Input
Amino acid sequence: LERQVHHHEKLATVGKIAAGVAHEIRNPLTSIKGFLQMMRHGLEQNGLQKEHSYTTVMLSEIERVNQLVGELLLLSKPRELRMEHLEMEELITVIAPLISSEAILHNIEFDMQLEPTPLVYADREMLKQVLWNLVKNAIEAMATETNGGKLTIRSTWQEREGLVRVEIKDSGPGIPHYLLDRIFDTFFTTKETGTGLGLPICQRIINDLGGKLQVTSKGFGTTVSVLMPGVKI
Ligand code: ADP
Ligand code: MG
Output
């Protein structure tokens, strides 16, 4: 319990700081990006190949800052939820091509096993974001450590508990047991360019939607499950 209280205090503090600065970062960043794109165009026109290639790096670094700021904003000021009844199977099918192309890029086999389930009551975009964050973690785990592997997304209906379960399973190196209770901490990351914001954001969203996140990792591979109450209508 103490650990959890500490965690929430930390989230609240981060939230206040983030909300204060995120917009102030984003606005100048947008203008830097705009002028840089114009410059880039000019460099190309004048045949300045080397300088042109620098702008590629600059733009991708700007994108990274942009993404970080976006994550901080989401964590600090979650927008109003737009709740609707959703079919998990359909939602996963919609993001499947995106997952597939990212998997191919990293030499990862991608498999889907989708069972029809009762509907869930949730915010579509938020849920997509959660699944995408979890998939990204799975792919990143396999891309760096084992170079390739297998990603499986499964949806099932747990009738007894009344829960729709979506599993994101990878064949990566797994998570050491002594780190399992830290991975949801804000800013906890083991990656060189990680933000440590993905899982806290997922946790926050799923809690807000009335669901639960579960992580199991035993030596090899990791399975993260999203559990959402099934709705009977
Ligand atoms: P980030 O991805 O920026 O590091 P996250 O909050 O998404 O931040 O994840 C926190 C940490 O949890 C990761 O740095 C990694 O150590 C661990 N982790 C999360 N998902 C997995 C996974 N599928 N396999 C192995 N480790 C994982
Ligand atoms: Mg992540």
Observations:
- The mean pLDDT is 90.
- DSSP finds five helices and seven strands in the chain.
- The first helix runs from residue 2 to 45.
- The radius of gyration is 20 Å.
